[in-house]
Amino acid sequence: MYLVHGWGGHRNQLGRFVAPLVAAGYQVVAFDALSHGESGPGTLGRRATLPEFADALTAVVAEFGPAHGIVAHSMGATATALAVLDGLSATRLAFIAPMADPMAQTHLFARFLGFGDRVHRAFIARLEKVAGRAMSSFDIPSRATGQTLPPLLVVHDERDREVGHVNGEALASAWPDAKLVSTNGLGHHRILTDADVLHEVVTFVTAPTPAVPC
């Protein structure tokens, strides 16, 4: 079982999930992404890119073995979805406060700072150069539609001010086998320590995998 923190976070933020997952019989692996916690720097020095998050998860799974489940928060959930869409195998996924499409966030950023289309286009071009891939490849709902993907639980707070609830709705709607659980008043970070959320997530990711008909 793998735990993936979000942008600006660290592995201990998902620490409350360790004991119940171990009690359920699973080995739990949590790690710090590049430029986070105790890991070395990514290409941007003090911050890692989304592809670096996804690549780090893929490398950790290659080192420690197949992923029965992955529990991921915020941009870590986006990176996990990206890795799965790029070919990483996992049996079950639980995304807490996921960002569905980083491109949409850039439009919010542009409106907040008050710059126009020309500056926004230059900003996107810069992001694509740093990431090494088109921004469209990060549009998780569009890429997930019609794919064969592992079952997904999305948990998102309706008052999340950092990554709006609309992201969880969009992701759950597009993912072929997904369940959305909405909370109210837990925000973007307290949701990781709520007892009901912990129970919901652990129950989902430890559920037995249905047998495939012969």
Mind explaining what this structure looks like?
There is one protein chain. This protein is of the alpha/beta class and 214 residues long. The chain is built from eight helices and six strands, in the order βαβαβαβαααβαβα. The protein has helices spanning 18-23, 50-64, 75-85, 102-113, 117-131, 140-144, 165-174, 195-205; strands at residues 2-4, 29-31, 67-73, 90-96, 152-157, 178-183. It has a six-stranded parallel beta sheet with strand order 2-1-3-4-5-6, sandwiched between helices. α2 (50-64) crosses α3. The chain is globular and about 55 Å long. It starts with a strand and ends in a 9-residue tail after the last helix. Residues 106-110 have low confidence and may be disordered.
Question: What's the helix and strand layout?
Answer:
Blueprint: E1 2-4, H1 18-23, E2 29-31, H2 50-64, E3 67-73, H3 75-85, E4 90-96, H4 102-113, H5 117-131, H6 140-144, E5 152-157, H7 165-174, E6 178-183, H8 195-205
Helix pairs in contact: 2-3
What is this structure, in a nutshell?
This protein is of the alpha/beta class and 214 residues long.
Descriptive terms for the model:
214 residues; alpha/beta; 40% helix
Order of helices and strands: EHEHEHEHHHEHEH
Q: What's the count of strands?
A: 6
Low-confidence stretches: 106-110
Structural class: alpha/beta
**SS strand fraction:** 5-15%
Taking the alpha carbons of the first and last residues, their distance comes to 27 Å
Q: Could you say which overall geometry the principal axes of the C-alpha atoms support? A: globular
